[in-house]
Write a structure and sequence with these properties.
Layout: E1 14-15, E2 23-32, E3 42-52, E4 57-62, H1 70-81, E5 89-94, H2 99-104, H3 128-140, E6 146-151, E7 157-167, H4 172-185, E8 189-193, H5 200-206, E9 210-218, H6 224-240, E10 258-261, E11 268-270, E12 275-279, E13 286-287, E14 292-297, E15 307-310, E16 315-321, E17 325-326, E18 331-338
Helix pairs in contact: 1-6, 4-6
């Protein structure tokens, strides 16, 4: 007797707006969540759909990490500014993709410690963050051609200005397309990196969509100039994709992007001791392999000399830790190197 295959579990999230309807609709993704104070409750995840006729479907999200604020401001503003008559296709906007984390101002969800950008493809029977990841990949990305997920460095990291990231292209045709999109977004630095199967860029690839991330500042603060650059670049990209028209589309991108690459093996610097770190280089510095990166000091044992941490490769400092206290395994610096001129 042949074994019967169980049907795939359905995602419990319900969207209270019609994603197939033309017009501008604002509501919530309702994630059931039964707790002591609310036995039959649900978690509200804000969502908006702005749709008119045929054209690309683009997801714009922020709040994947709840302590990254520039993107939440940008997406919320776009929901207010964009009307259906400006759109050819559809924009799906999520200003607080991991709503519990964003409500708490934390990188990960206080409900399950879930890092939304490390849990794809998710699980409809899993924890709240796994359920959100599953919904985004299988119910939103499955209908989209593009996704822009707006990040910054959060509480623990600060990035050097406005940056964007995308996966390494697989074919010359895809490389040309991705390069054109990076140029249209036009943030000062554009990084290409190897796939990571558990983040949203890989989720998009599995659904035959292209996803870009931004990194806009960080340190738990909001930099108004980076909000402005991120918004300008995003609107210019939406105009380039012909999903958005009208007066909101700027005449140009914020800048001419430099295409860079990140090497996971040599471009990260980690603390190997518990203490207080003193950076020896600034953001934007060009460094060499073996150069001193930081000193780790030990105030609890003042007789102990500080430990020097060195760079393991050549590159440019694009990110540094914002919190002085470190433990073994904490990232202190991230580098990138020139890839080649944009075509």
């Amino acid at each position: 007797m042949e074994a019967t295959q169980k049907p795939a579990a359905s995602n419990p999230i319900k969207c209270d707006i019609d994603l197939d309807a033309d017009g501008k609709h604002i509501g919530y993704l309702r994630l059931p969540h039964s707790v002591h104070r609310s036995a039959y409750g649900w978690i509200p995840i804000p969502v908006a759909s702005i749709k008119r006729g045929d054209g690309p479907v683009v997801i714009i999200s922020a709040g994947t990490h709840g302590d990254e604020y520039e993107g939440q401001i940008i997406v919320s503003r776009l929901i207010r500014e964009i009307d259906a008559e400006m759109v050819s296709g559809q924009l799906i906007l999520l200003p607080m993709a991991n709503a519990p984390a964003a409500e708490a101002g934390l990188r990960t969800s206080p409900l399950d410690d879930g890092n939304l950008n490390r849990l794809y493809p998710g699980d409809p029977l899993g924890t709240p963050t796994q359920i959100i990841a599953h919904y985004i990949e299988h119910h939103l990305l499955s209908r989209a051609q593009y996704m822009i997920d707006l990040h910054s460095g959060g509480t623990s990291l600060v990035y050097d200005g406005a940056n964007m990231m995308g996966l390494e292209p697989r074919t010359p045709e895809e490389e040309k397309h991705v390069t054109d999109l990076l140029k249209a977004f036009g943030l000062p630095k554009a990084f290409l990196y190897a796939p990571n199967s558990v983040n949203v860029t890989a989720a998009a690839r599995r659904q035959n969509a292209i996803c870009f991330l931004t990194e806009l500042g960080g340190g738990g603060n909001v930099d108004a100039s980076l909000v402005k650059q991120g918004r300008q670049g995003l609107l210019h990209l939406l105009g380039f994709l012909k999903v958005l028209g009208g007066g909101l589309v700027p005449a140009s991108a914020p800048s001419q992007a430099r295409l860079m690459t990140i090497d996971r093996a040599t471009h990260y610097v980690y603390a190997m001791d518990h203490g207080v770190y003193e950076p020896l280089v600034e953001l934007g510095a060009k460094v060499r392999k073996g150069q001193s990166a930081a000193l780790i000091h030990f105030p609890s044992n003042p007789k102990q000399e500080p430990v020097t941490v060195c760079f393991e490769g050549d590159g440019e400092v694009i990110c540094r830790r914002a919190i002085a206290m470190v433990s073994r395994g904490d990232c202190i610096f991230q580098l990138a190197s020139e890839r080649r001129p944009l075509v």
